[in-house]
C-alpha cells in the first residue's frame, strides 16, 4: 500500500510512517520543510524502507491537488497539527482561522482529493489523528478543541458517503503525547497559569489521567496500522481513544 502521512516529519507523524514502512508499505512524508523531509526520508531509506517525500501545505488548494496527483494514497493519515494557547478574547482571529484550516479544512480537502482514486481502486483508509480534545475541552484552546471536535463529525459523514466500497475512515484520539508540540504547550501553559513546567505536567496535563502517563507514539502508530488491517475492515466512523482512562471519569 502507498501510505501518505501529513506532518510526516514530526513526532507522531514520523512514528506512524516508520511503523508502516517497517511493515513493507511505501510511505510518503508530506510536510512543510524540504530539509526536514529530506532528512527523514533518508533516515527511512537507510534502513532499506520505501520512502519518498513531498512539500505539502494542507491550507493551499494547489498544493493539495499536486500532492494527490503525484501520490494517490491507499492510506491517508491526516496528522498535521499546530497549537496556539490563549483566552478567546486574546486569540488573534487569523491564528484561530489558521488552526481550523490546518486541522479541519485541510484534512477534509485532502481527503476530498484522494477519494476519487480510492473509489476507483475500491479501497481506501483514512485515519485522522485527533486528540483527547476531540472529546473533552481545556481552557485557552478554543480553536484546537473546535477543530478536533469537528474531525469526528466530518469522519462520520465521509464514512456514510463511501460505505458502498472497501473504505473506512476513523479518528485516533490520544491524550497528551510527549512531542515537540506538547513541549511548547507546557511552556505556554506555564506562562498562562503562572506555574512551573513540572506543575503544568502534574497538575494540568496528567491530572485527568488515572494512569498518569504520556501516550507513546508507538501506541498511536500501532493503532493506525490496526485500522488498516483486515481485522478492522468493518470499523468505520469510529473514535479510538488512547487516554489512560481520562474519559472514564
From TrEMBL:
Biological source species: Rheinheimera pacifica
> Pfam families annotated for this entry?
adh_short_C2
The UniProt entry's GO biological process terms, in alphabetical order, are: monocarboxylic acid metabolic process
Q: Which domain of life is it from?
A: Bacteria
Q: What is this protein called?
A: 3-hydroxybutyrate dehydrogenase
Task: Give an example GO molecular function.
Answer: 3-hydroxybutyrate dehydrogenase activity
Entry similarity comment: Belongs to the short-chain dehydrogenases/reductases (SDR) family.
Amino acid at each position: 500500500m502507498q501510505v501518505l502521512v501529513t506532518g510526516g516529519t514530526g513526532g507522531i507523524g514520523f512514528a506512524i510512517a516508520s511503523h508502516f514502512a517497517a511493515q513493507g508499505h511505501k510511505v510518503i512524508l508530506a510536510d512543510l520543510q524540504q530539509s526536514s523531509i529530506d532528512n527523514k526520508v533518508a533516515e527511512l531509506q537507510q534502513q532499506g524502507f520505501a520512502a519518498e517525500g513531498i512539500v505539502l501545505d494542507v491550507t493551499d488548494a494547489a498544493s493539495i491537488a499536486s500532492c494527490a496527483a503525484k501520490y494517490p494514497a491507499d492510506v491517508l493519515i491526516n496528522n498535521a497539527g499546530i497549537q496556539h494557547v490563549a483566552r478567546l478574547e486574546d486569540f488573534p482571529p487569523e491564528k484561530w482561522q489558521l488552526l481550523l484550516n490546518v486541522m479541519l479544512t485541510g484534512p477534509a480537502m485532502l481527503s476530498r482529493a484522494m477519494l476519487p482514486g480510492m473509489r476507483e481502486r475500491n479501497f481506501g483508509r483514512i485515519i485522522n489523528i485527533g486528540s483527547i480534545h476531540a472529546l473533552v475541552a481545556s481552557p485557552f484552546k478554543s480553536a484546537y478543541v473546535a477543530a478536533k471536535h469537528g474531525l469526528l463529525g466530518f469522519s462520520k459523514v465521509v464514512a456514510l458517503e463511501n460505505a458502498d466500497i472497501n473504505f473506512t475512515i476513523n479518528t485516533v484520539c490520544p491524550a497528551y503525547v510527549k512531542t515537540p508540540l506538547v513541549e511548547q504547550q507546557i511552556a505556554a501553559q506555564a506562562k498562562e497559569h503562572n506555574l512551573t513546567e513540572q506543575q503544568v505536567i502534574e497538575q494540568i496535563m496528567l491530572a485527568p489521567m488515572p494512569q498518569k502517563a504520556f501516550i507513546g507514539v508507538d501506541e498511536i502508530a500501532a493503532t493506525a496500522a490496526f485500522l488498516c488491517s483486515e481485522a478492522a475492515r468493518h470499523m468505520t466512523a469510529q473514535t479510538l481513544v488512547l487516554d489512560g482512562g481520562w474519559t472514564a471519569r
